[in-house]
Amino acid sequence: MVIPKHRSTSDLTQKIVKGVFWSYISFIGGKGLTFLSTIILARLLLPEEFGLIGYCLVVIQYVDILNSAGIATALIARRENVQEAANAAFVANILFGALCFTITWIIAEPVSVFFNAAEIVPMFRVLGLTLPLTGLGVVPDTMLRREMKFQTVLVSDVSRNFVKGAVSIGLAVLGLGVWGLVWGQVLGVLTGTILSWILAGWRPTWRFHSEATRSIVFFGFHVILLETAGAFRTNVDYLLVGRLLGAASLGYYTMAYRLPEVLIRSLNYVIGNASLPALAITQTDKAKMRKFYFGYIRFLSMFVFPLGVGLAFTSPVFIPLFLSEKWGPAVMPTALISIALCITALGHVPGVLYKAISRPDILNKLAFIKMPIAVLILWYSTRWDIIGVAAGQIVIGLISVSLDILIANHVMQYSLSDLIKAIWPALASTLSMTISLFLIQVGLPFDGLLQFFLMIMLGGLTYFVVFWFVSRETLLQGLAIIRSTLDRKKPSPKTILEGASND
């Protein structure tokens, strides 16, 4: 495929940054609402109740992999016969949605036996409704993302999370307890699916193409394998904590994971979601792809590193202050998981690259190498309760990211020095911020809300001042591209993503 001349690197960069901007607004709106509702629900519900729905959601996520069947990634990466491929994907989603709902109904009893919690059977079956509802919305939502219409996606994302939070809180106030969380999930997914159909403007037709259908199936098969392994790796800690340590421990661990997940993992997803279409476009031009790849790493590290360290230092103040003292056992795990997600964010970048070049098979091979390592470490770490499991995540992150980056550099023939060059500004600035936060934490005579805000302001100020001295060009380029995005003007040829390999 030849990249159109008008589709220059700076034009694509503008599209990426614009996509990231609107995706991040969607993140702030959608996940921000989730974050707010989590704080409210944490005061209304008990850790055991969060643990019960945690049992259900961790298993539902595995079934949901079959439901999506890798179709979203396959459609985004596809360049020809897109409508025919989307038609085949839509039919597949209907079939898989019905199959997945049937599976959840059948396995509800065995799941309750595994977790020794008979009360979750009806909750699990009701939550199974989210699978066919999600499947119906996959193709229209993907078509919006494929065209980088993230400003439009914002509407459905925010609305889905608003409905989920509002219903959950309202029913919890009425005394329905954990069932408020269940119905909030179902009605939130229904809202997102309806709005995706309204906003996408895409409609299925009876046009099919044999090659496009085979390609979707082949690509989807590899992504299913990849996401199954990835989901098992991502959720094995929940399985082990729930099975070995009980519902209360799972509730604390779920909350400890929820806070850094909203702030760190969601941002990782946002940037990757916006970058995948552009990387797919440049897949035949290795020079452009290299610039985007290392620019992606620099852009991601610039935000994720300070978020991870900042949350680790502020969690001892934030959790008792906003969630109440009953969530005290979640403080240390939150700090450790924040650092772990900060590390593993870098491992997500090669994954986006492989999907963009239609090589998810590489990720499958890596996943099956990393999975037994993760299971062994997490199983062993449960003997130190949820603090041990959270610490185990850091060890796994270091091993996994090292492997990801070494393989990516070998496959794409990139230099390790390019990676160090890309993350150095964020790394140096974050280390300075770490020292600043430690001194603030031990030296300030204040506590509570005032201490929390002072840590955020002074820590953030330290980070950006040091970043300015280490790589002011990156900050200036980032501000320029965001300003041009907001003003709808053509960006400067020097961009934050291009600058990754030129500084």
Describe the structure.
The protein starts with 8 loop residues before the first helix and ends in a 16-residue tail after the last helix. The protein has one domain (9-501). The longest helix is centred in the C-terminal third of the chain and has 39 residues, at 449-487. It has 16 helices and no strands. The radius of gyration is 22 Å and the shape is globular. Helices cover 84% and strands 0% of the residues. The chain is mainly α. The protein has helices at 9-44, 47-68, 71-77, 82-115, 120-127, 130-146, 150-173, 178-200, 210-245, 247-281, 286-323, 331-356, 360-381, 385-412, 416-443, 449-487.
Quick rundown:
It contains 16 helices and no strands.
User: Low-confidence parts lasting 5 or more residues at pLDDT below 50?
Assistant: 1-9, 488-503
State the total count of DSSP E strands: 0
Mean pLDDT over the residues: 77
Question: Which range does the strand content fall in?
Answer: under 5%
- The amount of helix comes to over 70%
Number of helices: 16
How many domains, as an integer?
Answer: 1
Terminus-to-terminus distance: 30 Å
Structural class: mainly alpha
Globally, the shape reads globular
Main sheet: strands, sense, barrel: none
Order of helices and strands: HHHHHHHHHHHHHHHH
Could you tell me the radius of gyration in angstroms?
A: 22 Å
How are the secondary structure elements laid out?
Layout (H helix, E strand, L loop, with lengths): L8 H36 L2 H22 L2 H7 L4 H34 L4 H8 L2 H17 L3 H24 L4 H23 L9 H36 L1 H35 L4 H38 L7 H26 L3 H22 L3 H28 L3 H28 L5 H39 L16
